[in-house]
């Protein structure tokens, strides 16, 4: 019970109501003491009227009047004359004098609290203004035991009433909290548990129904989260199915390309000059296609294989990429530029680096050709003490904002219409395997620039 929201709310409500009642209790007791003393003054004034009516009263009647008023003596000041109206022996010296005429609230509260906690029987003098302007002032002496007993009785009744009010209030609030908060929260928890059991089932997504604004916002946020998660799980399922299909196709394609590779080995032995010049490029292309199929099969099983790092001449890789792209361009007005320092060797897997640069250059070439305007693609490289920086620049139309949002996300970062969006995702994964990164440096109407960062050391510098 104490560990539940409603149980703790119940306890806190009782505590807070009791604190509020205590804050009310103090001035209430002070007010009660003031009324008690004023009533004693009024009763004493009424008793003194008997003496005003008859100047001589016997001692027995005087004692009875004082007993009924609850005082020891009565002094009335009339016409600037202080007159002892009724009197009887005072058993003790007067302890304190309290003037009830225009007494400040703080003073009344202080005197009431002192009186409440003082258990000694004392005699006090009380001064007040007579009612109905029957004089200038009235003064009585009285003991404090009856006053304190009456104040305690009043205080106990106030505390009991406060306790009853706090318990009833807390119980009503407990029921209200259970109906307004706890029950809807349990409903949300139930939806979460039901959804967790089968997140692919769209029927288990929560439907916001709460009329409380905060709970409604929580339900809508949960609905959005569950919808996105269900869509993501479905996409991953489709990707898994697609991966299985690609693995099967790659397996058969690898066998076909292996047969083609055997034929190219014989073509290399031809003495025709044109065949002699083109055969090595054909062999390299088929070899890369075979490696790509094998890598795809490995990816379908787990992920891209770890790179086989070695020192490779970057200029040769870039030259092969650009030669292949020149053949794809045909007669379109597109130029290529290479700015690779002579003799620069980078530490990378040559096949994986070729795929990354080829992906970036191919994307740039397709963007420029699609725009229908002449353009240029350049590949350059700089280095510092820790990293190699390879830049692929183009003068194309730039990337659309939607493509920039999911640039390296599979099946979402496609740049051209009909593209799968795998190229950049695979490129980023391959470079991460080298301990580096692929980033978009800039894009816009002036063109696009991608940067490949490769660390020189054994530890990734990203």
TrEMBL record:
<dbReference type="Pfam" id="PF00512">
    <property type="entry name" value="HisKA"/>
</dbReference>
<protein>
    <recommendedName>
        <fullName>histidine kinase</fullName>
        <ecNumber>2.7.13.3</ecNumber>
    </recommendedName>
</protein>
<dbReference type="GO" id="GO:0000155">
    <property type="term" value="F:phosphorelay sensor kinase activity"/>
</dbReference>
<dbReference type="InterPro" id="IPR036890">
    <property type="entry name" value="HATPase_C_sf"/>
</dbReference>
<keyword id="KW-0547">Nucleotide-binding</keyword>
<dbReference type="InterPro" id="IPR005467">
    <property type="entry name" value="His_kinase_dom"/>
</dbReference>
<keyword id="KW-0597">Phosphoprotein</keyword>
<keyword id="KW-0067">ATP-binding</keyword>
<dbReference type="InterPro" id="IPR003594">
    <property type="entry name" value="HATPase_dom"/>
</dbReference>
<dbReference type="GO" id="GO:0005524">
    <property type="term" value="F:ATP binding"/>
</dbReference>
<keyword id="KW-0472">Membrane</keyword>
<keyword id="KW-0808">Transferase</keyword>
<keyword id="KW-0175">Coiled coil</keyword>
<keyword id="KW-0418">Kinase</keyword>
<feature type="transmembrane region" description="Helical">
    <location>
        <begin position="6"/>
        <end position="30"/>
    </location>
</feature>
<keyword id="KW-1133">Transmembrane helix</keyword>
<feature type="transmembrane region" description="Helical">
    <location>
        <begin position="158"/>
        <end position="181"/>
    </location>
</feature>
<feature type="coiled-coil region">
    <location>
        <begin position="215"/>
        <end position="242"/>
    </location>
</feature>
<dbReference type="Pfam" id="PF02518">
    <property type="entry name" value="HATPase_c"/>
</dbReference>
<feature type="domain" description="Histidine kinase">
    <location>
        <begin position="248"/>
        <end position="458"/>
    </location>
</feature>
<dbReference type="InterPro" id="IPR003661">
    <property type="entry name" value="HisK_dim/P_dom"/>
</dbReference>
<dbReference type="InterPro" id="IPR004358">
    <property type="entry name" value="Sig_transdc_His_kin-like_C"/>
</dbReference>
<keyword id="KW-0812">Transmembrane</keyword>
<dbReference type="GO" id="GO:0005886">
    <property type="term" value="C:plasma membrane"/>
</dbReference>
<dbReference type="InterPro" id="IPR050980">
    <property type="entry name" value="2C_sensor_his_kinase"/>
</dbReference>
<keyword id="KW-1003">Cell membrane</keyword>
<dbReference type="InterPro" id="IPR036097">
    <property type="entry name" value="HisK_dim/P_sf"/>
</dbReference>
């Amino acid at each position: 019970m104490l560990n539940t929201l409603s149980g703790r709310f119940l306890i806190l409500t009782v505590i807070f109501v009791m604190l509020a009642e205590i804050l009310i209790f103090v001035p209430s007791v002070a007010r009660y003491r003031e009324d008690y003393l004023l009533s004693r003054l009024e009763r004493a004034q009424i008793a003194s009227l008997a003496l005003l009516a008859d100047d001589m009263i016997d001692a027995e009647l005087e004692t009875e009047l004082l007993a009924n008023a609850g005082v020891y003596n009565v002094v009335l000041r009339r016409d600037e004359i202080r007159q002892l109206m009724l009197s009887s022996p005072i058993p003790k010296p007067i302890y304190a004098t309290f003037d009830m005429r225009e007494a400040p609230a703080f003073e009344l509260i202080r005197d009431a609290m002192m009186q409440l906690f003082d258990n000694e029987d004392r005699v006090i003098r009380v001064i007040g203004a007579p009612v109905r302007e029957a004089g200038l002032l009235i003064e009585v002496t009285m003991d404090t035991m009856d006053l304190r007993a009456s104040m305690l009785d009043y205080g106990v009744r106030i505390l009991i009433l406060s306790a009853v009010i706090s318990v009833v209030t807390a119980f009503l609030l407990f029921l209200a909290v259970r109906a307004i908060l706890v029950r809807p929260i349990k409903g949300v928890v139930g939806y979460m548990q039901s959804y967790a059991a089968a997140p692919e089932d769209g029927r288990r997504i929560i439907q916001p129904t709460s009329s409380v604004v905060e709970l409604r916002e929580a339900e809508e946020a949960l609905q959005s989260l569950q919808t996105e998660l269900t869509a993501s799980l479905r996409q991953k399922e489709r990707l898994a199915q697609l991966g299985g299909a690609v693995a099967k196709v790659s397996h058969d394609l690898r066998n076909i390309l292996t047969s083609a590779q055997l034929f190219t080995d014989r073509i290399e032995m031809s003495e025709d000059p044109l065949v002699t010049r083109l055969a090595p490029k054909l062999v390299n292309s088929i070899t890369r296609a075979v490696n790509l199929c094998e890598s795809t099969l490995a990816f379908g099983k787990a992920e891209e294989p770890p790179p086989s790092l070695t020192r490779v001449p970057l200029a040769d890789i870039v030259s092969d990429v650009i030669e292949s792209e020149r053949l794809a361009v045909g007669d379109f007005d597109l130029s290529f530029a290479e700015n690779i320092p002579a003799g620069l060797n980078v530490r990378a897997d040559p096949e994986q680096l070729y795929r990354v640069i080829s992906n970036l250059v191919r994307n740039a070439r397709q963007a420029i050709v699609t725009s229908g305007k002449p353009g240029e693609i350049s590949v350059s490289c700089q280095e510092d003490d820790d990293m190699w920086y390879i830049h692929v620049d183009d003068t194309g139309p730039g990337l659309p904002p939607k493509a920039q949002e999911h640039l390296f996300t599979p099946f979402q970062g496609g740049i051209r219409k009909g593209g799968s969006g795998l190229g950049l995702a695979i490129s980023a994964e391959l470079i991460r395997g080298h301990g580096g990164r692929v980033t978009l440096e800039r894009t816009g109407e002036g063109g696009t620039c991608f940067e490949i960062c490769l660390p020189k050391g054994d530890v990734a510098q990203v």
